[in-house]
Amino acid sequence: MTESRGRNIGIRFTRILLIAATTGLVASGCEVTNPGPIQDEFLAQPASQQGLVNGGVRRLAELLTYGSYTHAILARELFPGGQTGFMGHDPITQSGHILPGSFSNRWNDGVQARFITETAIKRFTEVDAPSNMLYQAYLWNAFSYRTMGEWWCDAVLGPTDPDDTTPGSYEQGSTGNFNRAIDSFTAALGFASTPEETHAARGGRAAAHAWLGDWSAAASDAATVPDDFVFWINYDDELQPYYNTIFEANARQPGPAPLSRTVDFCG
């Protein structure tokens, strides 16, 4: 009985303190102001620059993680196990086909990745940002365009100026995406300050040249990159949209259908 009364007294005392604190705030004229969306000019300030680049990288990571998983099934690098629910695919995709209009969310990720990095390029150029910031913006812009060129045969290409609202134009084929990727890889090389930064840009550009069938340019770039060079994009095992999805679906996921895919090492 004493313990129960003690708890009740404690609860009442806490409520009194909360009421008193709230009354004090009101009496002192405390106001909360919602500043609204971040003003565009703040994006180029030094404290915001890395965050803006990271936003583009995060969108590209979201595109790559589930997109690579889907493409691995289509190419039979992974063999589907019939899972259609959590971390699964519909039967049509598992059979190796993509219906028109499918996976539009992945396209949105790619467009947002290139748009955010193009915004960074323009804003950083206007304020003469450090070379490393411009290098990152151009590099990830290039990887965004290269990935979209690799994964979409036809596309609508919008303006590269983020402030230009002119509607995009339809292109049959991927030439436009790859040419933009090459341009941005080349620009990134102009800001590279370490061998690793140079290797990442030249290695990425080599692949874009190869997709366009320019094998001499591809070989020239690739020859400068060491065989053991590795360039990573970071995933996040705390948030599902940024999982290393191929790994999660095959090895670690404790959901209803672990090991729902098998890896084909011989195909």
Explain this structure:
By secondary structure, the protein is mostly helical. The chain has helices at 2-27, 46-74, 91-94, 104-126, 131-151, 175-189, 195-211, 215-222, 245-252; strands spanning 78-80, 154-157, 169-172, 261-263. The chain has two domains: 1-32; 41-263, Serine Threonine Protein Phosphatase 5, Tetratricopeptide repeat (Alpha Horseshoe), CATH 1.25.40.
Structural domain count: 2
What's the helix count?
9
CATH class of the largest domain: Mainly Alpha
| Count of strand segments | 4
Rounded radius of gyration (Å): 25 Å
Q: Give the overall average pLDDT.
A: 81
The secondary structure category is mainly alpha
Strand content: 5-15%
Shape: globular
CATH domain topology of the largest domain: Serine Threonine Protein Phosphatase 5, Tetratricopeptide repeat
The CATH architecture of the largest domain is: Alpha Horseshoe
Which range best describes the helical content: under 10%, 10-25%, 25-40%, 40-55%, 55-70% or over 70%?
A: 55-70%
Order of H and E elements: HHEHHHEEHHHHE
Largest sheet, if any? 2 strands, antiparallel
Uncertain segments: 1-27, 254-267
